[in-house]
Amino acid sequence: MPRILLHMCCGPCSITPVKSLQDAGFEVTGFYHNPNIHPLSEYLRRRDGAIEVAERLGIRIIVKDSEYDPQAYFRAVTFREANRCFHCYSLRLERTAQIAGRGRFDFFSTTLLYSKFQKHDMIAALCRDLQTGCPAKFHYQDFREGWKEGIAISKEWGIYRQQYCGCLYSENERYRDGLRPD
User: Which residues are connected by disulfide bridges in this protein (predicted)?
Assistant: First the structure.
C-alpha cells in the first residue's frame, strides 16, 4: 500500500481528500503545519478540527505545534503582499515535502487542492516543482469534486468551519466591509 503524507490546512478541507485517497488505496498520514494562521486561537481551533477528522477517519496525524511561527510567515510575505499566497503555499508545502522525504513516504499532497477558494493551478505547479530531488513524489488530485460532500459531513460532525483562509490579510479582506461607515 503506497504511503502518502497529506498536508492538512484544517478539518473540513481534509474530509474529502482523506476519504478519496483511502478509497484509492493509499495509507494516509496527515500533516498539520500552518504558520500562516492568525491569531493563535484560530490556529488551535483549526488544529483541533484536523485532529478530530484524522481520528474519525482512522489516520495518523503529525502536528508541528513547535513550528507554529507566524513571524516566519510575515517575513516570507512582507513586501510581497500581491503574491502572498504563493509564498504562503511555499512555506507550508516545502516543509511537507521535506517531512515526506525524511519519513520515507511514497507521495505527498495537500488539502489545499480541495478548496474552491485557493489558487489550485499555483498549488499544483509548486508541488510539482517541490518533488524535484525529493524521494517522495507529488500526488496530484483535484479534490474539489467532493466539495459539497465535504461541507455536509463537516457540518454533520460539528467540525469547526472557518470563515477566512487563515492569514491576517484574508481575515481583513473577509471582514473589512463591516468596518466601513454606513
Answer: 165-167
pLDDT of residue 64: 92
Q: How far is it, in rounded angstroms, from Cα 141 to Cα 111?
A: 10
Give the mean pLDDT per block of 10 residues along the chain (182 residues).
97 98 98 94 96 98 96 91 90 98 98 94 98 97 94 96 74 67 50
- Annotation-wise, does 165 bind a ligand? no
Residues 6+ apart with CB under 8 A from 39: none
The alpha carbon torsion through 90, 144, 45, 8 (nearest 10 deg) reads: -50
**Domain residue limits at 36:** 3-179
User: Is 134 annotated for ligand binding?
Assistant: no
Q: Do the beta carbons of residue 174 and residue 163 sit within 8 Å? A: yes
* CB 11, CB 159: distance < 8 Å: yes
- Identify the three-state secondary structure at position 7: strand
Q: What is the CATH number of the domain that holds 159?
A: 3.40.50.620
**Was 127 annotated as part of a binding site?**
no
pLDDT value, residue 177:
67
